[in-house]
């Protein structure tokens, strides 16, 4: 076999192999397509089945949802129906109640209208009777004048004169006896009661000199001052010994205390706490103590300056402390330390003119009211307390005597004591030293009484209860019950027109006739 044949055979074999491969690949592709087609048909069938299953499940779920929603709607409708029925019952009850009230009001209105008609009829009847009575009185007066030969005014004057003479004689005897009893009693009690009471009593300046106000940046600060459950305000009042008044007044709190030193300490401490913003019991205690120390130090420095300026020598440190505390004490609105310095200068000037001991006069004058620094905490008058302090800290007998005698409790034992008493009176009595208190208040009471007294037949008038009530006493022989009512109305009208006041003023007209006699 030749080479060409072999090549030919190989070529044919290759061709046959290629053709066979092509045919086989074609058959593979055809089968693959058929498989894919079959697979696609299976997937479509599965999808159709799954679709049917999903649709069925959705239908079942939708049916269940519809059933549930229907039940909920029915339950809600049932609940709503119950609420509507409840409201209907309430509305019916209210309507019934309103109808009852309307009927009650209609009855009241009818009753009031009837009463008004009755009152109008009574007033008309009273007017007619008053006119008849006036006519009868005038007729009786004319008859009496004809019988007695005197006019009614002349007869009245004669009767009044005879009664007045007898009353004056009896009154004079009683007044004389009362005056003698009072004079004897006053001589025994005047020094013990009047001096002790009038010097220590706080009522002379309660309304004007026992409070201090502190301005706040805002009303929220009031809550911080009060604190949780009131712990801050309780701590503040305990530490300062004052009352803290927090009311509806905007951005202001009031500190109340009869003790001016405590009031000043509380005022400064509260101002510092408000400015600092930290308000709690520990901070309150710390601030109050610091302010107290500063004020005592300031008072001591003030006392040293006064003693140096007066050139009266050295004072015991405790007396210096009490002297400085007088800076925070007032008497009838006059500062006690300033008053004491003025008394010292006046006593010194008079001692110099008379050739007496100037230093002793100044020293006694400066210390004459030293007891007022502590008399609110210690029993006894300020003169006794001051004398005890002076004696305790080594003052001489003349200074002690001047302190005790400047209000006349004991007799002076030296001319300087007399000068201190005179200087004390001059300092207190000079114009401008002590401000007039409650002048406008007293003037208002006097105006109320004058309006009442200006009416004919009014015997006396008294304004009481701080001017909220005016009691008017009328002559029973001149004013009858009806005229008493008219006088009360006239006074009320005049007060409303002429006087400015708050609230209301109650006018009470009293008509009373008494016949009194004594069997001896």
UniProtKB/TrEMBL annotation:
Q: What class of enzyme is it?
A: hydrolase
Q: What is its EC number?
A: 3.1.-.-
Localized where? Answer: Cell membrane
Question: SMART domains per the record?
Answer: HDc, KH
GO terms in the biological process aspect are: mRNA catabolic process
Q: What keywords were assigned to this record?
A: Cell membrane, Coiled coil, Endonuclease, Hydrolase, Membrane, Nuclease, RNA-binding, Transmembrane, Transmembrane helix
What membrane topology term does the record carry? Single-pass membrane protein
Q: Name one Pfam family in it.
A: RNase_Y_N
The chain's coiled-coil residues are 30-192
Q: Give residue ranges for domain HD.
A: 336-429
Output the Gene Ontology cellular-component terms.
plasma membrane
- Is this entry keyworded Metal-binding? no
Alphabetized InterPro entries for the sequence: HD/PDEase_dom (IPR003607), HD_domain (IPR006674), HDIG_dom (IPR006675), KH_dom (IPR004087), KH_dom_type_1 (IPR004088), KH_dom_type_1_sf (IPR036612), Ribonuclease_Y (IPR017705), RNase_Y_N (IPR022711)
Q: Its principal location?
A: membrane
One GO MF term on file is: RNA endonuclease activity
Would I find RNA-binding among this entry's keywords? yes
Membrane-spanning parts: 6-25
Q: What does this protein do?
A: Endoribonuclease that initiates mRNA decay.
Protein family (similarity comment): Belongs to the RNase Y family.
Q: Which PANTHER family match?
A: RIBONUCLEASE Y
Q: What is this protein called?
A: Ribonuclease Y
């Amino acid at each position: 076999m030749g080479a060409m044949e072999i090549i030919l055979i190989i070529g044919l074999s290759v061709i046959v192999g290629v053709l066979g491969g092509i045919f086989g690949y074609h058959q593979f592709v055809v089968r693959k397509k058929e498989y894919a087609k079959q697979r696609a048909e299976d997937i479509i069938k599965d999808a159709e089945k799954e679709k049917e299953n999903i649709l069925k499940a959705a239908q079942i779920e939708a049916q269940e949802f519809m059933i549930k929603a229907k039940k909920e709607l029915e339950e809600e409708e049932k609940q709503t129906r119950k609420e509507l029925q409840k409201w209907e019952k309430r509305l019916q009850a209210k309507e019934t109640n309103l109808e009852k009230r309307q009927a009650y009001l209609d009855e009241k209105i009818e009753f009031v209208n009837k009463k008004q008609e009755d009152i109008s009829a009574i007033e008309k009847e009273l007017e007619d009777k008053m006119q008849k009575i006036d006519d009868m009185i005038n007729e009786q007066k004319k008859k009496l004048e004809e019988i007695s030969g005197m006019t009614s005014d002349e007869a009245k004057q004669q009767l009044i004169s005879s009664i007045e003479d007898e009353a004056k004689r009896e009154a004079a005897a009683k007044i004389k006896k009362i005056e003698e009893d009072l004079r004897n009693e006053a001589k025994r009690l005047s020094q013990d009661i009047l001096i002790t009471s009038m010097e220590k009593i706080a009522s002379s300046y309660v309304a004007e000199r026992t409070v201090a106000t502190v301005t706040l940046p805002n009303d929220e600060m009031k809550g911080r001052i009060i604190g949780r459950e009131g712990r801050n305000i309780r701590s503040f009042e305990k530490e300062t010994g004052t009352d803290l008044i927090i009311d509806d007044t905007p951005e202001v709190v009031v500190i109340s205390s009869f003790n001016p030193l405590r009031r000043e300490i509380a005022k400064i401490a509260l101002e510092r706490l408000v400015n600092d913003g930290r308000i709690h019991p520990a901070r309150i205690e710390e601030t109050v103590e610091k302010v107290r120390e500063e004020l005592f130090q300031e008072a001591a420095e003030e006392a040293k300056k006064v003693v140096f300026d007066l050139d009266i020598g050295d004072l015991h440190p405790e007396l210096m402390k009490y002297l400085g505390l007088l800076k925070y004490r007032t008497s009838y609105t006059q500062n006690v330390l300033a008053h004491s310095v003025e008394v010292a200068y006046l006593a010194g000037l008079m001692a110099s003119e008379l050739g007496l001991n100037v230093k002793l006069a100044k020293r006694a004058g400066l210390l004459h009211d030293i007891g007022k620094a502590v008399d609110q905490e210690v029993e006894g008058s300020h003169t006794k307390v001051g004398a005890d302090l002076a004696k305790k800290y080594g003052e001489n007998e003349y200074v002690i005597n001047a302190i005790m005698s400047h209000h006349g409790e004991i007799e002076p034992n030296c001319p300087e004591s007399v000068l201190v008493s005179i200087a004390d009176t001059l300092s207190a009595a000079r114009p401008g030293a002590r401000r007039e208190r409650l002048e406008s208040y007293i003037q208002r009471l006097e105006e109320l009484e004058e309006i009442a007294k200006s009416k004919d037949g009014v015997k006396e008038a008294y304004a009481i209860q701080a001017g909220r009530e005016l009691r008017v006493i009328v002559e029973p022989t001149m004013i009858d019950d009806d005229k008493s009512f008219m006088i009360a109305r006239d006074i009320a009208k005049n007060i409303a027109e002429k006087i400015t006041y708050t609230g209301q003023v109650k006018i009470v007209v009293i008509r009373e006739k008494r016949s009194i006699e004594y069997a001896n």
